Amino acid sequence: MKRVGAWLHPSKASIHQSRSLTALDESAALQEAMRQAAYIVNDEVDKAEAELAKGNSPFHKLGSATTLFLRATLGFEKEMMEQAGVRLADAQDSASEYHRRALRDASTAHQSAIYPRGSEYALCHAESQLMSAVVGVLNESLSESLRGFYNLRKAFTTLQEIVDAENKYLEKHFSSSTTSLTSGTRSDTSTAPGKNASETNSGVLTPVDAKDADDDELEFVDAEESVSDQVTPRVYKGNLDGKPEQIATDAPSAAEKAEDQLDFASVSSDPIDIFIHSGAAMCFGLLQLLLSMVPPAFGKILSIFSFRGDRENGLRLLWRATAFKHNINGAMAGLVLLPFHNAAIALCDIHRREAYPTERLRQLLHEMRSIYPNSLLWLLEEARMHGAERDLETAIEVLKGDSKPTTLKQVEALRVFETSMACMFLHRYEECAQSFIRCIDLNNWSHGLYYYISGACYVELYRQYQHTDPTVAEQHKKKATELLHHVSANVGKKRFMARQLPLDVFIMRKIAKWEHRAQSRHCDFIDAIGVSPHEEMIYFWSGLKRMRPEHIAVSLASLEWSESQPTWKDEAADEKAILSLLKATCLRNLGKVAEAQTELKEHVLCHPVSAITACDHADNWPLPVAHYEKAICLWDQAGGQDGDRTSLKQCSDELAVVERWGSFDLDARIGLKLTTARETLRRIGISQ
């Protein structure tokens, strides 16, 4: 793909190689592409692709690329990611070409009172870069992943400059309601001190800050090349945010309230202005949110690119974009907000009450389902909401109740996966196993994991019937053996940033551990398995947050099986630590916080690190995770965000232990919870 510096100053001949859109044509092309792109979020992706393919504008190409991007990110399929990458590159090239034309030929370009000429194409370019970055990071190649982070940096800067222009206009024309939101934005831009943006060359679109330029005649020029000298603005500045960084409070500030009261429809009714405004809010909000969710393990990588995210600000931007639900930007913002809250925040243990706005989310889901009634994506979110409310039975009914076919096999795979998980949390062992086996036919992301969980289900059934019905028990034992022996041949095929997937590494180590135990104990493979692998998976997938007391009672009974075995007194330290950790988590979720703390103190944290690591094929995660669980207990003991400050400080200290621990099994699955917990404490004034 061309460098931005190459196409910002093209030869005259290149400008007229194909017909430019007139301002009138451009508006019509945008509205047509937006209408066709809306099919994407109504489960009519094939129709969207067919309709968008008929157009050749950057808006059509962006929409077409979005269809493949959605398929690629929902299914994590390498072939689809490669196709999406090609189409996104084409969309970027098209956007850059049209942007160049807009700068060179003002007579045919759309004239906005708010944004620099060509901003709509700069936004298309940034959106394509953002999607390319996500595809790159998900790619199995380390070089592609790093290139993806660099694309994120470039998209970030372009978006920042677009909204700086919006700020300037709003401050001038709507100063009574927005002055407090828009002051000082230039000081936070990414141009290095002492340099004018026009003196540098990076391949990032930014507006020139020329003293003699008219407010309405800003243009995009090349931005700074040196990433190491740039400081990424911590917050998005638009009519959206211009406050200096400070410790946030629970109540929204006056600036935030003013932001939310500003109806952009009263600022402009121009479809192109609305596209730019909603697209910038959606993209910048998504970027801020993604950066804020990065686990501590990836912090060093992002520091190379001067990245910092702001979760609260990102969420405000995404909510603002949902004001335009009928266009693809607003719909995509909804597709970010709902999964973030239902599949992430709802499952975190330490967060403010305001972090999960139940009624607002229900209203958003209702509106999205009304506008896009055919999409199963909204149905998935409804099921997740029921799960977050500990109503897993209804979640399964919702997932199974709508049998209409979907044009996205990736969405069908997600529906089956969500059903499988709900069955796992409900201890519906055979149903869970069969459902995960079905995932193998629908998705190729982690077949080893699907076999592993299915096998773990039959291990539980074997243990249930071992002493009451030996014949049935033997059948389940045979099935468990068959499934678990499929694991080794089906892991290690996928990579993330050139490394094996953490879950693949985890389950392969478990299989090796059980094989070693079977050999050293002279017993069958299934009889060598230690603490319930099914309950381990429930923990790592945050199942206990979705289970009611009667479900947790079944988990406790499964854990007691290990303690009842005659070999338990001689069991390895890591297995004993796992069992007590899982038991403590069950007790905490039953509201028995004091008992949970005692279990952690006397039966997990009592083990020195050396005793754990000395075990064969050691599980090294119980100790750091126990410190995290202790932090949750202290949070609960304090009474949450308004509680005893001493307990909250102790909670922070326990989190710090985990943050300093280094790598351990599946640390990324704790990482998001850890990041959320730390941000929560920061916002209520508890420093590290």
UniProtKB/TrEMBL annotation:
GO cellular component: cytosol; mitochondrial outer membrane; nucleus
Region of interest: Disordered: 175-209, 221-253
Pfam family, one: Iml2-TPR_39
Ranges of Low complexity composition bias in the record: 175-191
Subunit (UniProt): Interacts with lipid droplet proteins.
Function field: Inclusion body (IB) resident protein that interacts strongly with lipid droplet (LD) proteins. Involved in LD-mediated IB clearing after protein folding stress, probably by enabling access to the IBs of an LD-stored soluble sterol derivative that acts as a chaperone in inclusion clearing.
Name this polypeptide is given: Inclusion body clearance protein IML2
